[in-house]
Every structure is written in C-alpha cells, then in structure tokens.
Amino acid sequence: MTNSSHEDFVSWRDMIVRVTEQVGERTVAKWLCEHASGCDAEDFAEVLDELVSERAGEHLRAMIERLGNGEPLQYVMGRWSFRHLDLLIDERVLIPRPETELLVDIAKKHLESIQRPMTIVDLGTGSGAIGLSLLFELPLESATVYMTDASEDALHVARANAAGIGRPSTGARFGNGSWYEALPIELRGTVHAIVSNPPYIADGDPEVGESVLQWEPHHALFAGPDGLNDVRTIVNEAHDWLIPGGFLALEMGYTQGNAVAEIFSSAGFSNITVHKDLAGLDRFVSGIAR
Length: 290
Fold this sequence. Notes:
alpha/beta, 2 domains, seven-stranded mixed beta sheet, two-stranded antiparallel sheet, PrmC_N, peptide chain release factor N(5)-glutamine methyltransferase, peptide chain release factor N(5)-glutamine methyltransferase activity
C-alpha cells in the first residue's frame, strides 16, 4: 500500500478499493478501514470522502501486514461482535464463533421460567462472550453470573469486556481456576444454570485448521484422546453446584452428540436434549439436574 498521508489525497472511499485489491475481500477491507479510521460502520459512512491521515494509514498498513502473515482477522482488529456485544479479542482468548451465540439462546429460553434473582455460572469464559451476553440480555439485576477461567490472562480480557457493557456488568463475578475450583464454596447447591463452551477437540484432530493451531490458545481447544475430558469433568461435578431442577448446557463437536448425551445420562440428568447449530449439525447438549 502506498503512503497514506494527506499529501497523497487518498480518501477512505479510494482506500477501500486499494485494500480490497490487497486482501481480496471488500467486506474485510471495509472492516479494516473502519477500524483504522476509529469509526463504527454508521459513522464511517459519513467520512468516506475525508482524507486518510498518516497515523490511520500506518495503522492500516500494520493490520494488512499482520493479516498477510496469517494472523486471524479478529486478532488483527482486536475486537469482534458477538450477539449484541462488541468484544475485545486477542491471542489470550478463543475467537468467539457464530454458533456459540445459540448457546446463549438455549440458556435464555430455560431461564425465562426461573424465579429472579438467579445465579448462573459460565465455566471457561474466555472473552466473557457467553456470560456477558446473558447479563446484557436478561433483565437488569435479575442475575449474577460467575465467569471462570483457568487462564488469568483470559480473565483480564473478560473483565475488560465487562467494563464495556455498562450497568449490566454489576452482576459479573470472576474466578480463576480449573472449572468448579474457581467458584466460591458457598455457591454449592445454589446455581440455577451452568453454561460452558469447553475444549472439545480431540488431540491431533486432522480437521483443525492451520490458523487455529498457530494462533489460538491450545488449552481452550484440546481435551484428550476423544476431546471429552473436560466435558466429563463439567457434567459429572455439576450436581454438586446446581439446585434440584438446575440447568446445564454445553457446546460440543458436531460428531459428539451421542457421546455427550450419554455422559449427561450417566451423571443422572433428565430432559437431555441435543441441539443443532445453524448448519443443522449437533452442537449443544442440555439437561436438567434431578
């Protein structure tokens, strides 16, 4: 990309064309230009004919270089949308996937019938996408959401994202540790719902993309020979924390529906349901604690 100083008289409108030629996708080019300009989509439309400043041009060049080196777009931009939230995203956390948004819907549908106030746990929260979405979308002050992660680095990201959602963040609590070890002991037997997008990829799975292997945190991806080590821990210990009739919902790999449903059944859950994602693939399992 050529120098983007005022002397070049390059408008943002022209810059989108230039960047599209470099990255190959106009949508991606537009996102990068919006981000470099410091504007959101609506405001960016109003500055299309303004000149690109030298500082914005340098930022844009750096992002294009990182993208060219294979770094995921979400990390390059440092932010990504998830449902109604604009989240801080970097190499400390997994990139939120569109299918995970449905896990929030599954939990919300169950929580509609729960007497308020309620206690929710988001195990392995990463960026906070699931737990913060629940806080943001449920009625204000109706829930306390405990968000845990074994990675203190991930919790720094989740706390930053909590600060970005405003008043609903008053219901956010954070805990560092492996699964239930991160929760206050006094929560045992009081939790209305547990949600989690745990690691569920089998070690050495050949379907994992090179970009995922190179850039995303492996501790949040892989879980033993069949990918279900962490799922077993979460399901088998959930009864210690849930109230009778409490709800557990997990994301999983698209081939794991039967195996995860069996883990739920063996742990004594009822009303076990396998839910599909937008592509029609098995993606979540939920159940009720007896």
